[in-house]
Amino acid sequence: MAKITKDILEGFKPFNWKKGLFLLLVVLCTSPWVSPAIALLLGLVVAQTIGNPIQKVNSKISSLLLKISVVGLGFGMNVNSALDTGKEGVIFTIVSITLTLFLGFLLGRVFKIDLQISRLVASGTAICGGSAIAAIAPVIRANEKQISVALGIVFILNSIALLVFPSIGHYLNMTQQQFGMWAAIAIHDTSSVVGAAAQYGAEALEVATTVKLTRALWIIPVSIAFALVHGKAGSSKLKVPYFIGYFVLAMLANTFIPGMDVISPYLVAISKAGLTLTLFLIGAGLSFKSVKSVGFKPLLVGVSLWLFISVTALWVIL
Predict the structure, then answer these.
(1) CA 36 to chain centre
(2) pTM of structure
(3) Which CA distances in Å does 92 have to 75, 128, 172, 220, 316?
(4) Which of 188, 246, 295, 310 is a Cys-bridge partner for 71, taking CB atoms 3.0 to 4.6 Å apart?
(5) What are the residue ranges spanned by the domains of the chain?
C-alpha cells in the first residue's frame, strides 16, 4: 500500500491543470449524479485526451476498489434469496462455461492466433474477465504481451456491454430477475456486471452480483485443469478470489445481525460510489494505444465468443 501511495503522489508531480481536472473527475464520479456508464465514458475520454497520471498503478487501485465495493454490496443482500438465485443459475453456469471454453479453443485454432491468448480470452469470457485472466496467466505461463492483449479485449467488450445492455433489457421488457441473470452470464468483469445491473434495478443488482460471484468460483477448477494440462499442478500458485468469502460474510451479517438494517443502506451507498469510481479508473486505463495493440484476429475471437454467450444466454433466459 505504501508503494502504491508513493506512485500516486509521484504521478501528480509536477501538478498541472490536466491532473487537477483528473482529480475533479474522480470526486465527481463518487457523487450520486454520475451513473456507472457515464463514469466509464468519462474515463475513456480522459484516457484519449488529458491522460491518466496514475496509469502505473491504475489497475491495482481499480482491482482493490472493486473488491471492497463488491463486499460492501453484500450488506444490501439477503442470504436466503441469494441461495435461491444461486440454485437457479448453477446448471446454466456449468454448461455455458464449458461451451465457451471449448468454442474459444476451437476459434483460436481456426483463426490461428497464439494459443495462450486464446486460452486467456476464452477463460475471461467464460468466467469473470480480468480476474480469470489474472488467475490463469501464471498457470499457463503467459507473458506480459499475451496478458495485455487478452485484458484489452475484455475491457473493450466490457465497456460496450455496460453501455448497451440496459437499453437492450428495457427494449425486450426483461424482468429484473432475467436481466440480472443475463448480465452475470454475458458480461465479462464483475465491475461491469454490477454497473449494468445497478442501472437496471435493485433486484437485478442482487441477482447479477450473486450469480457472477458464484461463477467466479469456477476460476479454481479451471485453473487446476490448466495446471494439470501443463503438468505442474503442484508448483503453480492459484489466485483464489478470497474477497468472495468476505462478500458472503457481509450477506450473513446483513441477514442475521440485529440492527444492520440501519447501517446497511449507508454501506451499500458508499460501495456503489466506489464501484462507479472503479469504472471511471478502468476507462481511464484503456487508451487508444492499448486498444490498437490488441490486433484484429484476437479481437475477432473475443467478439465471436461474447456474441455466442450473450445471444445463447438471452435465448435461454427469455
Answers:
(1) 13
(2) 0.77
(3) 26, 15, 21, 18, 9
(4) 246
(5) 2-317
